[in-house]
Specification:
Elements lengths: L1 E5 L4 H8 L5 E6 L18 H8 L6 E6 L12 H18 L3 E4 L2 H9 L9 E4 L8 H11 L9 E3 L8 H14 L4 E5 L11 H12 L7 H7 L2 H7 L24 E3 L7 H13 L20 E3 L8 H6 L10 H9 E3 L12
Parallel strand pairs: 1-2, 1-8, 2-3, 3-4, 4-5, 6-7, 7-8
Antiparallel strand pairs: 9-10
Helix pairs in contact: 2-3
Length: 354
């Protein structure tokens, strides 16, 4: 199984990725400048010519630009100047480094981009992002039918919802039905998000990020999660992290007959984090703190050391066959206590805070 990974602007990271080309299914990235149209707070500003130049070594790797915000300001959906500005940048990426398509979540935005009449649109795949939460074949078909009402190309792959990672029978039937109707489409799974299972905060969290990206309010999602959301939840129920539908590197073989690629996330956590994850999933093995591979739950690595190897050998079978009804089960509690120790607080030298 190949990897779909984030690209961030860093000479060392770019050089590293070029040594891993045989393992890459695709790379994905934000525009880097102009309006924020992706689903995360912008971490750097990069002009389009520089981005195109940095992506040029990956000519044979599929490339997708993230336009996967949950929403934009309502007036922008019909603002041809605004939408054309974004498509002009995407056209540059298509012409200079072979951009294959866009990742989207908001169909209003997709339809608005199409209505501009921009000539680049028919040359781009419209790939539903993982936050479209496609967890049935019927939902996959509904998304593809709607894409067919635009001038965008159908996606070459479908990224299924992370919840299916822990429901192998449902995953298998979903993949079978999709492949029966669309034999050439590929299937991708999200491996290392590490968020709450069927997260009740998810839609609100995405909406809060999109709201802050409009510039109308300050970004407060990190604090919200610390006080009320997933951070607070995992601090109180650390063992329930194991219920999260992540895929350990060692468990990739269990999915090899179902999926063509796995997506790694964590682009806001920097190149060291991304390189660590890429190495682990290429090797299909990780000897260290499992929390160091997680995106949403990465903050827990400062509080716990979860020895990944101590979760062997029956982790996959155990966690994919449980009822998900934690009131009647102690499996996660037992696994957590057997593999995890609480970190001792370490006082950093004063110079590290300067």
């Amino acid at each position: 199984m190949k990897l779909s990974i984030p690209y961030i602007s860093s000479p060392d990271y770019s050089d590293y990725l070029q040594t891993k080309l045989p393992f890459l299914e695709s790379i994905y990235f934000s525009l880097g400048s102009g309006p924020v149209l992706d689903s995360r707070i912008r971490i750097s500003s990069l002009d389009i010519q520089t981005l195109a130049r940095e992506l040029s070594p990956f000519s044979r790797t599929k490339k997708y630009c993230l336009l996967n915000t949950r929403f934009v300001r309502p007036g922008l959906y019909m603002d041809k100047g605004f939408l054309t500005q974004a498509l002009d940048k995407i056209e540059i990426l298509h012409e200079t480094c072979g951009l294959d398509g866009i990742v989207f979540t908001d169909f209003y935005l997709l339809k608005g981009l199409d209505r501009t009449g921009h000539p680049i649109v028919p040359r781009l795949e419209a790939l539903p992002g993982v936050n479209c939460m496609i967890d049935t074949s019927q939902k996959a078909f509904a998304f593809m039918e709607m894409i067919e009402t635009t001038r965008f190309k159908l996606p070459g792959k479908i990224i299924l919802d992370r919840s299916l990672n822990r429901e192998p029978k449902k995953l298998a039937s979903t993949v079978r039905d999709i492949k029966a109707a669309r034999p050439h489409i590929k299937i991708e799974l999200l491996a290392n998000e590490g968020c709450i299972y069927q997260c009740p905060f998810k839609l609100g969290h995405d909406a809060q990020i999109s709201l802050s990206n409009t510039g109308l309010v300050r970004e407060t999602t990190y604090r919200l999660n610390q006080e009320l959301g997933c951070h607070a939840y995992f601090h109180d129920h650390g063992h329930r992290f194991l219920k999260s539908p992540f895929i350990r590197p060692e468990d990739l073989p269990h999915y090899s007959d179902l999926a063509d690629s796995v997506k790694l996330c964590g682009r806001t956590l920097g190149r060291r984090f991304l390189i660590r994850c890429i190495e682990a999933y290429i090797d299909r093995s990780f000897d260290g703190n499992l929390l160091d591979l997680m995106d949403a739950a990465n903050f827990l690595s400062g509080f716990y050391h979860m020895d990944n190897k101590k979760l062997d050998p029956d982790f996959f079978k155990t966690l994919t066959s449980c009822t998900k009804d934690c009131k009647c089960c102690n499996l996660c509690t037992e696994l957590f206590s057997g593999a995890t120790v609480k970190n001792k607080p370490i006082l950093q030298p004063y110079e590290d805070y300067r």
